[in-house]
Amino acid sequence: MSETIIRSSGNVFIDLGYSPEEAAILQMRADLMAKLRKFIEAKKLTQVDAAKILCVSQSRISDLIRGKWERFSLEMLVTLATRAGMHVRLKTAA
User: pTM higher than 0.85 for the full model?
Assistant: First the structure.
């Protein structure tokens, strides 16, 4: 049995059929969630401690750690990243 391998566009959301605009937002959300999870892990924070630092409930941290991206807007993720001391910038292609 032969399988066809298709080269990725570089954005999994485009590959899944989302419009370029929606794919860009979804990619930003996924990237921010990953960085926030890494922040929590690097600091060895409990969910309770992370919730205090980020000014959200422990259940929100649980959603973040479990990757429930549909529960976080891009704006909320930028807010959480800023509270974590990150400097969020939009990188644009020239």
Answer: no
